[in-house]
Amino acid sequence: MSRNIRPKFSPTTLPTPMNRPYPAPRGTVLLLSCMDLRLLDETVQFMAGDNLLNRYDQFILAGCSLGADMNQHWETAFFDHLDVACKLHNIQDVYLLEHRHCGAYQVFLGEAGTFDDSAPGQEQERLKHRDYAHKLAEKINAWGQQHGRPLRVRSFLMDLRGHVELLDAVI
């Protein structure tokens, strides 16, 4: 019985780091991403492309930043996790990895979370993701200041092919 097994990344097969318009992470990163199963491999590739293979903690919420905003329990769980990750792994950078065509946006926001593939629709979607990511980034920065842990937060938007754009470089 044959199984379809996905290849694993090794140091010799990692994607070449692209010229990224932000400084390299200083150490271990906490990644908040969405639960979308279509982008699991692409998420690992993105992190490996930032030289973060085996150097990041991952926390997953439906809708990524929106999930933390819409559900107080999830926001509390995220910040509890951030606290433990900082203590155990000296987190200095937080990545918020949003993605296009997010079903959680449709669940939480209804029609306001549904975007078409036209240029104006894609721009609306990008701005909505940016706004929720920025809102959470502000809370992360406030948390870091309260706990004496300066954190750099970067937010990204991934499309369904795994292409990633920077939403905010350093917040």
Automatic annotation (TrEMBL):
This is Carbonic anhydrase. Residues 1-20 are annotated as: Disordered. GO terms for molecular function: carbonate dehydratase activity; zinc ion binding.
